[in-house]
Amino acid sequence: MIKRLINYIKASTEELKKVTWPTKKEIYQYSMLVIAISLALAAFLGSLDKIFGWIFTLII
Q1: What is the pTM of this model?
Q2: Burial of 47 from C-beta contacts in 10 A (0-12 / 13-18 / 19+)
Q3: What residue segments make up the domains of the chain, in order of their start?
Q4: What are the start-end ranges of the H helices in the chain?
């Protein structure tokens, strides 16, 4: 059991060495993209909520 755990840890560290990690600039750009998309989606859903609320108020 211990031998399997050690082999797993060794294999994991070898795989992590092969990973191409993003640069700080890429992380910043991706983070800004996620924030912008989230804000746009929140504004879109908020406006739909207002529109449907207004429509239901007119109906009722």
Answers
A1: 0.66
A2: exposed
A3: 22-60
A4: 2-18, 24-59
